[in-house]
Design a protein that fits this description.
This protein is an all-alpha fold. About 60% of the residues lie in helices and about 0% in strands. The chain is built from 3 helices and no strands. The model has no long low-confidence stretch (mean pLDDT about 85).
Length: about 70
């Protein structure tokens, strides 16, 4: 996954988030203590969901409705 492409991260299933965590932490040389692993995986899953929500909100394809008071 390149720095500018979030699709691989966004396409992770909940079951694959932990495997992603293990792989990336090993690649970066930043081991995650076992006592923190579940919390970090949960945070990654939440970040993935927030990223998808934000990307959906910034999609330029839906028409923007003008505000009328």
């Amino acid at each position: 996954m390149s720095g500018g492409d979030l699709s691989a991260f966004q396409n992770l299933t909940d079951a694959k988030v932990a495997a992603y965590l293990d792989r990336r932490s090993a690649e970066l040389g930043l081991p995650v203590p076992e006592s923190c692993r579940a919390g970090v995986a949960e945070n990654l899953a939440l970040l993935r969901d927030q990223t998808a929500l934000f990307a959906g909100l910034t999609d330029p394809s839906p028409p923007v409705e003008a505000f009328e008071p």
